[in-house]
Amino acid sequence: MLKLLHFPLCPYSRKVRLALAEKELEVAAEAIEPWLYRDDLKTGNPAGEVPILEDRSRVICDSNAIVEYLEETQRGHSLLGKESSQRAETRRLIAWFDKKFVHEVTDLIWREKLIKRLRDKATPDSAAVRRGLANIHDHLDYIGHLFDQNHWLAGEQLTLADLTAAAQFSVLDYLGDVPWDKHPAAKLWYAKIKSRPSFRPLLADRLPSIRPVTYYDDLDF
Q1: What was the pLDDT predicted at 41?
Q2: Which CATH code for domain 84-203?
Q3: What is the pLDDT of residue 37?
Q4: For 58-156, where are the E strands, in sequence order?
Q5: Taking the CB of residue 130, how many other CB atoms lie within 10 A of it?
Q6: φ/ψ of residue 214, rounded to 5
Q7: How confident is the model at residue 166 (pLDDT cuts 50, 70, 90)?
Q8: For residue 98, which of 176, 34, 173, 15 has the smallest C-alpha distance?
Q9: Is the pLDDT of residue 39 over 80?
Q10: Which of 32, 72, 186, 208 is 20 to 30 A distant from 2 in Cα terms?
């Protein structure tokens, strides 16, 4: 059986969890706080970060390495896309949300408001949070544009582009920091992916010290 080490409110861990669920793979998932996991976490990943996937004697770390590994080793429909052009677009959007979006939004909100509080026992930088809240609108507009052109972000089928974006937005939504009502097209996209069975475990995640907003697990938000 596959084994996954993850942090429930980590967007990269959530991307892998969504991919595993969409592929209907059985996995033993262990939730941890990486900064409390001592040096033995570095046995699986020298960077000391999650997610980490164990497949028998193989250990794979980094969320993109893991999802590509699943694509290569597991049967079932591809989450990258059917055609080479769609696979290229999927990978482009994965990079967009894992890099550009993280730099401009996630790290300025999620890392400041949640990770600094849990790991560092520190207060967020309010100026950084304000920048992230301002930047998020352009990305929601972009999601709305992509969704208006297709049934999903990278084409006519759900791909890892959708899972990557949804994983990022879901941790911000937990904190109540996504202005969905100002971006109806993006809200329709998120409602569509939020209603999938693969998303249910994410909606059940709770941190004892930080509770989600009331509508976090509401499919009719």
Answers
A1: 85
A2: 1.20.1050.10
A3: 79
A4: 58-61
A5: 12
A6: -65, -30
A7: very high
A8: 15
A9: no
A10: 208
* Structure tokens given for 25: 């793979």
Place of tokens 């409110």: 9
Give 81-126 pLDDT, tens digit per residue.
989 999 999 999 999 999 999 999 999 999 999 999 999 999 999 9
CATH of 2-73, one of 3.40.190.10, 1.20.1260.10, 3.40.50.10070, 3.40.30.10: 3.40.30.10
Q: Contact 193/146 with Cβ under 8 angstroms?
A: no
Q: How many CA atoms lie within 13 A of 129 on its CB side?
A: 16
Q: Give residue limits of the domains in the chain.
A: 2-73, 84-203
3-state secondary structure of 80: coil
Provide the token pair at 51.
Answer: 């997610």
Strand pairing class (27-31; 2-6): parallel
- In sequence order, the β-bridge partners of residue 53 are 4, 60
Q: Per the structure block, which two tokens stand in for 16? A: 């892998």
Per the listing, tokens 């990557």 go with 164
Identify the H or E element spanning 77: none
The model's pTM is: 0.97
Residues 48, 59: Cα–Cα separation, whole Å: 13
